[in-house]
Amino acid sequence: MSTIPFQTIDWDSIEKIEHIGTTGIAHWQTKQLGGLRIRKVTYSKGYVANHWCQKGHIVHCLEGEFISELESGEQVQLSKGMTYIVSDNESSHRSIAANGVELLIIDGDFLK
Question: N or C terminus of the chain: which is more exposed, having fewer CB within 10 Å?
Answer without folding.
Answer: N
